[in-house]
UniProtKB/TrEMBL annotation:
Domain SCP: 27-178
Gene3D superfamilies registered for this protein in UniProt: CAP (3.40.33.10)
Signal keyword on record: yes
Sorted UniProt keywords: Signal
Annotated signal peptide: 1-20
A Pfam family recorded for this sequence: CAP
InterPro entries in UniProt: CAP_dom, CAP_sf, CRISP-related
Alphabetized PANTHER family for the sequence: CYSTEINE-RICH SECRETORY PROTEIN-RELATED (PTHR10334)
Domain of life the protein comes from: Eukaryota
Protein name: SCP domain-containing protein
Length: 228
């Protein structure tokens, strides 16, 4: 074995030792933007742009949590200090290659997106019930995905071969859980809205009068109701 090969082998060994055999990745910005904006287009919120610095933050956070065996539910990297939002996903899966990392990210995104079904948008008071103390199922990953006021996203991953952690960071942060903020930033899916205001006067009273909702559901919030 040549001295150059020996040096490279030693260098790799030292890197593995220092990082505890944890491999990190920045998830492809193109794929992150594509998946997020496909969902946001469906529900009617503006496109996000990819942000390299958010991706670095996300990657470093994923590494820290895997290295320190942190409780991901506690968001130990404290994204609020950077005024950023954060979604986290952990799975017993290998994500050490770039292809594996992308597969794990796509799985994470599907899990976050699936939370939409657990928000009862047909309930006129859905926004009043969307606070962290009364929501029985996790739904705030989904709301961050579609949050209207968020404009940038970056995602990273860390894997030790047996476990992988995906982190996405968002700016400006979402999930400011006030009723007015939720009603503005989390769109009611079109299939949930009534065909006419007469079908559900409570829906009209609470939602049709919101200008952002009128823009999305103008044909459903009839002018005869005097709200759109």
């Amino acid at each position: 074995m040549s001295s150059k090969v020996k040096f490279l082998a030693l260098l790799v060994a030292l890197v593995d030792l220092c990082h505890g055999s944890i491999i990190t990745h920045i998830i492809s910005s193109k794929e992150v933007v594509r998946t997020h904006n496909k969902l946001r287009t469906r529900v009617g919120t503006p496109d996000l742009s990819g942000d390299f610095f958010l991706a670095i933050k996300a990657k470093d956070c994923a590494f820290k949590m895997l290295r320190d065996d942190d409780n991901i539910l506690e968001h130990p990297c404290d994204p609020s200090k950077d005024k950023q939002g954060e979604n986290i996903y952990s799975v017993k899966s290998d994500g050490r290659t770039s292809e594996q990392a992308l597969t794990v990210y796509e799985r994470a995104f599907r899990v976050w997106e699936s939370e939409e079904k657990d928000i009862n948008f047909a309930d006129p008071d859905w926004a009043f019930k969307m606070d962290s103390t009364s929501t029985s199922k996790p739904v705030f990953h989904y709301t961050q995905l579609v949050w209207r006021s968020t404009t940038k996203v970056g995602c990273g991953l860390a894997s030790n071969g047996g476990e992988s952690i995906v982190v996405c960071r968002y700016s400006p942060k979402g999930n400011t859980a006030t009723v007015s903020s939720l009603q503005y930033n989390v769109p009611v899916p079109p299939q949930t809205a009534p065909v006419t205001c007469e079908d559900n006067k409570d829906f009209a009273a609470t939602l049709c009068k919101d200008l952002s909702v009128c823009a999305s559901f103008g044909s459903m919030c009839k002018k005869s109701c005097g709200l759109c």
